[in-house]
């Protein structure tokens, strides 16, 4: 007999949506497009600035509520409250992606009686004054939530707010982008990843991918890299610290060893993952909650040097298994870790192999979507 059950009606709620391409926006898009045939899927977000727009993107219905602009990372949108109230009347499940204070408040005021799923991406770390005002709303919303999804156990352990709700928490790791997973699979098959005729003194390429902002630890990285022999450092991304970082490179005479590529497209980034020997994620603040670039590099069979932040970061790539983990902000530990990977080529390749295996076991979009669907 056929299955006559009605499809579940699910609404994804976030600040912004594609073509904005932050880490959270990418996850919202993966869920919306990946489960659109299994459930009746809709998306409600805000405009960065401008009038309300309703559109279909890759067969997903998306409403962007009008906004006066963005202040302290938060869209100023009054129509969002009305849209959520109206759309929620026909929903079985609403999935909110936090932190998004406007979403919490709108849900509590909407009169919505259905199920609430929260994906907790990270704590609010920097806006301390706003946090004092927002905390009672957030606590009421977390009490209201039926399930809280986190990407690693570290998100619960390192959070200042989640511990009282740990019984509601479910771990669902992120999945590496399909295009990257497919490209890396083909490349690894071609390369066969068994390197013969190892060159003992070849220049090892370290790769950094991210915005050039304070919490990414780029200054620490350059200070540590000064004393790394037989190596090159490629910096991908731009941001407010770019000029300062270039001055440090000049000051230490590292122009031939450090290359800034700025923002590059997806295809060029894939080529950089292939060309590098290891990824470095030297973040110093738990604003770095996971580090999606870790699983992207690991998909290409590359080990990762990350930091032991009280967040999901050290849970993704494991110390001495798929890479090395160092203390955040510790120049000498980071320097030692990079030199160790330069000097231990066989171990570096073995870590890269295990990194790829970890991606296959834990970090595919298919696995992520299966787990989300099970929760629905």
From TrEMBL:
Pfam families: Glyco_transf_4, Glycos_transf_1. GO terms for molecular function: glycosyltransferase activity. Keywords: Transferase. The keyword Signal does not apply. Residues 190-358 form the Glycosyl transferase family domain. InterPro entries: Glyco_trans_1, Glyco_trans_4-like_N, Glycosyltransferase_grp1. It comes from the Bacteria. Residues 22-177 form the Glycosyltransferase subfamily 4-like N-terminal domain. Transmembrane segments: none annotated. The keyword Signal does not apply. This is Glycosyltransferase.
